[in-house]
Give the backbone structure.
Amino acid sequence: MDFNLDETRQELRDLAAGLLGREASRERLEAFEKTGAPYDAAVWKALGQAGLLGACLPEAVGGAGLGTIELTVLLREIGAHVAPVPAYASLALAAATIGAHGTPEQQALLAPLNDGEAVLTGAYREVGASGTVAATARPDGDGYVLDGVKTYVPYAAEASRILVPARVGGPDGAIGVFLVEPAAVKIAPQHSATTEPLSRIELAGARVGADALLGGAADGAAWTTFRRAAVAGAVALSSGVIEGALNLTTEYVKTREQFGRALAQFQAVTMQVGDVYIAKRTLDVAVWAAAWRIAEGRADADGDLAVAAYSACGPVVEALYTCQHLHGGIGLDVTYPLHRYFGWGKQIGHMLGGAADQLDALGGVIAQEA
């Protein structure tokens, strides 16, 4: 497996890094946080105008038709710049599954994403272990009645549609993915570690038409794509977050002096920076391995996804604490940028269910392969 990006992907990364370096600079982020807006609409539209949002959308709706690896490249840069835009929600939680399984009419919902004119999202989490689905969809006439509760749904109120996985016919039924309008469900805000809005959604008997079922079938295929895209996108963000935090920390210890010497000259400091780097590289390897397997259509991606998710929930969060420690008191100052990386890393870990949950998931994958 070659972890080096080819020329096209390097250009995509450089374009995203350059744009976000300008549009999501420290000064711009500070100004945005004072507005109270759910996301930075100017940055979102700039990403669209640069062709970055459309890169992984189907060609049928004006996109470039690229895949999981390219989406990973983009989301890593979003995380590295902690850019307050609904890229994960719109592209990983929604567009990846709609593009792979949607009918032409359903895929048409993706077209406004090309220019940053819309937001989509998906309801991946429920109460309990991540990746479980207890919500149900009862056939009713020419549609379905949805019941259940979803949590940690980003940008639910801002989205034009929410992808909702549910078991069709009862608690043991096959899982289908439904396109639901926000107005059809009860949305309540949840606490967030970042500026990103999170919501708890009560389906509460919401009725949707037959055309809301993604691809017109509840055979589990759309759910598999949705589940993998949700985890792959989250760990890609985390990979970018820890890289940004490490870069910030490295620069700080090079310039901050104590007892007349730069912190980087103390062996204890360099060892701790090394620990952060190891956590970052461990996550990176699993992220790229999972993205490659998904892009190749391989059935063995779940193991790498579980390893990546565990790394994002456990070692990477611990590494972010180390970054805080190495910064001393300034690391806790909300006027210093490290707090954004810390908040993003913690929130991703919560959304994925935590390290123990992901160890259980990894154990389940190993047991199935045995």
About this structure: The chain has three domains: 7-118, 136-216, 223-369. The radius of gyration is 20 Å.
